[in-house]
Write a structure and sequence with these properties.
Length: 693
């Protein structure tokens, strides 16, 4: 039984009342729970009571927790909540006074910290971490998992697992450093390694198992009691066992100690636990099958189906709100998606795309499909990416994006893969982040879709907002176009890739540059409407108007960063280059990644965005290397070549820039048009700009 995962044991208990499985779970985790309780209540009797209440909650919520990926994380959070209640209600006033005394010691400027200094505050500090960071530390130092075992549980590489532990430890150290600067990372590691888990008192696991099982049996009524009776053998042995279990439960119910107040909160704590699961930032999905070292292909396939079901639920909710039925064509699409039939899914989607409004080829002749179209598109795009990418590389890419985000950050995707891959993982792992795409902000149906998804969590744009942004852009663009018409010998104000025409006095705009300019204004307005939220972006086209207050954030760009001008230092720029250098080396050394055009194009695009940002902040040396990394990943990508040529021209290396553009156009003739467009836009005069410090 030791080979079974926590999830397998929970399912065995939830589905077949396997008391042996539950007892084994208690044995496996009782030390962790008891240690966490003891650190907070500072009293062995109260720690036992808290531990017992935690496992009662576990038994009551076994079915839902069987889908929770890191059980130790849930156990720790529940322990912390119940222990805090014990302290708050003065059940152990002396323990609270000891904690206050320990807090004073922790704030004192002593040369080094001991376990006694940090123990009373460790669990609160862990509670300040994000769920992924907290889970990483619990798995490593409390469950004593190796990096390889962690990687299997979290469905990431060994290296990524170790990096996550290191990152989490750094953040935990930062929390303690606010109180005690002398506490170093190495000292904290040593203290946790030795003291994090202490052995629970002998016999506590047996008592807890009996009490928890009895509590669940009593709350589920006569039916459960009869089930228990039928499982017991006839005769004195069965009677003794049954009386023992009932007796343990009655003793618990009639206790005048802390358990009485704790027992009344078990149901509420269970609700809190379910809420924790729903809001978890865990990123690998909550399908139990992903925890059994399933192949990446199966994990991704399961996630696509699970995500499709969630979007189907949204479709059904829209139909109920509109008091109508879901069109049969919409249902047929979701049927194909949930069946895992890619070809039929694609065919059904193409039919819907033809009859809605999304594309130039679309007929826009089925208004009954429109309310559901964005949910369909939101389900289809992840399925398409799953069809195109190597499964493990898709998981790695999505997790790398999500790991770049801080808790509660709004994610703004750009490209199809940048929009869909992290949204798939986020949507099958708790919907921790608000996820949107910059390219659809001008679409009223997409804005309705965001309101359906996020409701009160997020202030989206209105139709009036979109109209105002279009009008502002049109006035500015028409003014620039008129300038170029009136003064043909002066430098052009219409930007490359911005197709502007005046027809009967009205402006018509098209082209990638025009779309990017409108998206940029819309995104800026969206950020203004959500001042309390922080945003991170994976670009589609460069949104250079947002660069002034942006900083690198892993694969992404953090937008509207406070004090970006002072925090975006040369050291931070160098760290970003190091980050991308490591990624590029790992990708090119990985046969699966190196053989996947989709994978290499995605990373090349994202590193190019970072290079654009470095350039905008005049870190030319770092930008040059980053552009070259982008070209290494996808050699026929014209964007890094153009970006690097611009730097060379600005820093006086115009001959080198021209030669590089010529060589690229010869080697990749399909990209000649892009190169020529860029060549016409660049000022070939030598700039006085200096290389980065």
């Amino acid at each position: 039984m030791n080979d079974l995962t926590d999830q397998q044991l929970l399912r065995a208990y939830a589905e077949s009342d396997s008391e042996e499985s539950f007892t084994f779970l208690v044995d496996r985790h009782v030390d962790l729970v008891y240690s966490a309780a003891l650190r907070q209540v500072c009293d062995t009797h109260s720690a036992k009571d808290v531990t017992q209440a935690v496992f009662v909650a576990l038994a009551q919520n076994a079915a839902s927790l069987a889908r929770h990926p890191v059980l130790s994380g849930w156990l720790h959070s529940t322990t912390r909540n119940l222990a805090a209640k014990t302290v708050r209600t003065n059940v152990r006033r002396q323990a609270r006074e000891q904690e206050a005394a320990a807090m004073n010691e922790l704030f004192a400027a002593e040369p080094a910290a001991s376990w006694d200094d940090i123990a009373p505050h460790l669990d609160a500090a862990l509670g300040e971490l994000s769920q992924p960071d907290r889970d990483a530390l619990l798995l490593r130092y409390f469950d004593k998992k190796s990096a390889r075992e962690m990687a299997q549980i979290l469905c990431i590489s060994d290296e990524a697992a170790q990096k996550r532990v290191n990152r989490a430890m750094d953040r935990l150290r930062e929390i303690f450093s606010k109180r005690r600067p002398a506490l170093g990372a190495s000292g904290l590691v040593a203290l946790l390694s030795v003291n994090a888990v202490q052995s629970a008192p002998v016999g506590l696991a047996v008592t807890i198992s009996a009490t928890a099982l009895a509590s669940v049996g009593a709350t589920s009524g006569v039916f459960t009691f009869l089930k228990l009776m039928t499982k017991l053998k006839s005769g004195m042995v069965g009677a003794v066992v049954l009386l023992g279990v009932i007796g343990a439960f009655l003793l618990t119910r009639e206790s005048n100690g802390p358990n009485k107040s704790l027992a009344s909160d078990v149901n509420k704590n269970a609700e809190d636990a379910d809420s924790t699961i729903r809001s978890s930032t865990f990123r690998r999905g909550n399908s139990s099958r992903t925890q059994e070292a399933a192949p990446a292909e199966k994990i991704v396939a399961d996630k696509v189906i699970q995500y499709g079901r969630k979007r189907r639920e949204l479709v059904n909710a829209i139909a109920r709100r509109l008091n109508t039925s879901v069109p049969s064509e919409i249902n047929a699409f979701f049927d194909a998606l949930e069946a895992g039939n890619w070809e039929e899914t694609k065919s059904r989607w193409e039919f819907l795309a033809t009859h809605t409004h999304q594309y130039e080829r679309s007929k826009h002749d089925r208004p009954d499909l429109e309310p559901y179209w964005q949910a369909v598109l939101d389900a289809f795009l992840p399925a398409q990416e799953a069809h195109e990418w190597p499964a493990q590389k898709l998981l790695d890419y999505g997790n790398a994006i999500l790991d770049s985000l801080r808790p509660d950050m709004v994610y703004v995707g750009g490209t199809d893969n940048g929009r869909s891959v992290p949204t798939l993982l986020n949507g099958t792992g708790g919907d921790a982040h608000i996820m949107l795409t910059q390219n659809a902000l001008a679409d009223g149906t997409y804005l309705d879709h965001l309101r359906e998804l996020y409701g009160e969590r997020f202030n989206t744009l209105s139709q009036e907002d979109s109209k105002r942004v279009f009008e502002e852009y049109s006035v500015d663009a028409q003014k620039r176009l008129q300038h170029d018409l009136d003064f043909p010998d002066e430098p052009k104000q219409v930007r490359p890739g911005e197709n502007l025409k005046l027809i009967d006095g009205r402006l018509q705009a098209s082209g990638a540059t025009a779309v990017a300019a409108i998206n940029e204004k819309l995104l800026q307005l969206l950020m203004q409407k959500n001042p309390n939220l922080s945003f991170a972006m994976q670009e589609s086209s460069p949104l250079k108007g947002l660069y002034a207050d942006a900083v690198p954030l892993g694969l992404l760009l953090e937008l509207g960063a406070q004090d970006a001008q002072t925090t975006f230092t040369a050291e931070r720029a160098g760290q970003s280059v190091d980050y991308w250098r490591t990624i590029a080396q790992n990708l090119l050394a990985d046969p699966d990644a190196a053989g996947s055009t989709y994978t290499l194009k995605a990373y090349s695009h994202d590193v190019n965005s970072t290079a654009n940002l470095l350039t905008a902040h005049n870190y030319f040396t770092e930008a040059e290397e980053t552009y070259r990394l982008s070209s290494q990943l996808w050699p026929d990508n014209p964007d890094p070549v153009c970006g690097l040529a611009a730097i060379l021209a600005r820093t006086g290396r115009t001959d080198e820039a021209r030669q590089m553009l010529d060589n690229f156009a010869v080697k990749y003739p399909d990209q000649r048009s892009a190169i020529e467009t860029f060549r016409q836009s660049i000022p070939w005069t030598v700039s006085t700009a200096k290389p980065s410090p």
